[in-house]
Each structure stands twice: as structure tokens, then as C-alpha cells.
Amino acid sequence: MNLGLRDVVLISISVFISLIFLVGNNWLLSSHQPRYAVIDLLDIYNDEQKKFVDLILKKEPTDQDRTKALNMVEDSSKRIDGVVKAITKECGCILLNRNAVINPEALRDYTQEAKMRMTEKR
After folding, report:
1. Are residues 39 and 68 in the same domain?
2. The domain containing residue 15 runs over which residues?
3. What per-residue confidence (pLDDT) applies to 120?
4. pLDDT tens per residue across span 42-96
5. Same domain, 60 and 76
6. Helix then strand then coil, % of the chain, to nearest 5
7. 44 and 75 belong to one structural domain
8. Domain count, the chain
9. In whole angstroms, what is the distance from residue 49 CA to residue 57 CA?
10. Which residue has the higher pLDDT, 26 or 97?
């Protein structure tokens, strides 16, 4: 089999074009796969509940303390929702409840980040 220069050039061009399509396809598939992370919502809710209980059960709570505690309860779910949405947007990932994942250690955990943001929002 005798290949001329024209045949070698055509084969090289065909291989190069195929390689471009393969690399492009792999890049598109890998860049559009969803990323996942976890967050322990129960832990965050427990922290919020502890703050509420500490305020209500202090030695002699005032009416102002009780009102503040009730407002805290009403506001907690809105703040948690806002923090979770902000983290999801910033990380570009889908946040899953840590307790619903079989192997949560394999994913990044944003629980501490959420707790810090909850403290900042007060």
C-alpha cells in the first residue's frame, strides 16, 4: 500500500477534526454536569432553637425578651432560606440535606458557612 502525500494530509486532517469533536464533546459534557454539596439543616435549626430557648429561659425574661424571641422564631426560617439560596447561587451547586445523603463525606459541606452567615445576619 503506497500512500502519497495527499493521502497522508487527508488522513491527518480527518484525525485532527475527529480529535476536536471528541475534546469538545467531553468538555461540554463535563462542564454541564450538576455539582452537589451538603448542608445540615437540622443542625442549623437546632442552633436557632437554642438561641430562642436561651432567651426565653433566662432568669427573668422581660416582655421585650419574649417579643424578641417570638420575632426570632418567625424570622429564622426566612433567614435560613435566604442563606441557603445565597450559598447555592455562589457555589453553583445543588445543596442536599446532609441527613438525606448516604455518603455525605464525599461532598463539600456548607453547614458551618451557613451558621456563620446566620450569625452575621442578626
Report:
1. yes
2. 1-33
3. 79
4. 999 998 888 888 877 877 778 887 788 778 877 888 899 999 999 999 998 999 9
5. yes
6. 70, 10, 20
7. yes
8. 2
9. 12
10. 97
